Amino acid sequence: MEMNQNRLKKSILFSYAATAIPLAMLGLPLYIYLPTFYAQNVGLSVTLVGLILFFSRLTDVVTDPLVGLYSDRFGTKYGKRKPFMLLGSILLAISFYALIHPPEDHVEIWLLIFSMLIYLGWSIVSIPYLAWSAEMTSNYHEKTRLSAARELFTIIGVLAALLIPYLYSVAESADKSLDILYTAFLVALFFMLPFTLIGIKESSVKPSKHISFRDIRILWEKIPSLSRLQSAFTLNSLANALPATLFLFFVQLVLEEESKTGPLLLLYFASGIVGLPFWTMLSKKIGKRKSWQTSMLLASAAFIFVPFLGSGDFLWFALITFVSGLSLGADMALPSSIQADVVQKIDNQKTSYSGILFGIWAMLTKFALAFAVGLGFVILGVVGFEPEAPTPLALNTLALLYGGAPVLFKMMAFWIMRGYRETV
Question: What is the pTM of this model?
């Protein structure tokens, strides 16, 4: 698909977005269930799990930019993005299986090695995948449609991952849920990845041979809005990652509504689907930056009440979940679309920066997730948090980490984006 100003066909949107479904079905168990699985079912301490996952995700600081760099330099008759996505998918399938079937001995090393490998596989798939979106069209609003289609399919994949354990009546068992989700991931990958690899032709942008990290530093100096956008994105991602990491503990121990975790997650992501068309429409009227900031304010206005909730406040929490979920679509679609706009302005026919810039983008996402796990689990460990018998201090700390800290981070991101200037 050559870069052009024309409206993208629905078949192109579908083919591109298809891969988002299996990636999302993998992401939910990794970011929400896996830490709890190793802490409760395997028997590792929450502090140790947090530190291991933090370190393994921290390796993405090195690997993500490198994957982006080499995907820009790569070139075959099959394209420069597609071979990476195929290779990464194989690594994902192998590593996911290993993670959910740990041995009896040396579990800590096993978790470290295969969590590093699965994050590497994710990078090899997702970075070329994201970079491709900046090369498919040069139209400001079409990039939003492309991102919105991808994130809509992401939410569909998340909803599927939420519902499947309930459909098979294994939702109460973490190990059985992970096993069935692994099978569902393989099926989705087998059927959806070919739509992306076969259904779309790559851009004619030639592989870059000379780009270096020094060039990126020069870009940051020449284009201050790039570093401003990346800083705000990191803080906003951290604000979203903390509740995701601590969700199960908060619902089980603070609200005391363990049986409602599935319906609450379903409500959250369903409201994300409801809100996505609104944010797409609003971005056409007031711009992507202002629309994203509006979503930050909406989520913060709802979430600021979370630390005051306790047992018996399920309906209030459900309302907060729905309102904050409306902002999900904006958080998923708009920042990456703004990044694609920046990449589009930087790229030319001789040099492609898409891969390395989206590699840095992915690195920031994973750094936020890593920091959330490290921050959340380590602080809980310091206050003596034990899931079986939490103290009042531990519960109050959990509530503040879950509901208070995200508002602070979102307001910091909002403030940083005040100085961002976008041109259509």
Answer: 0.73
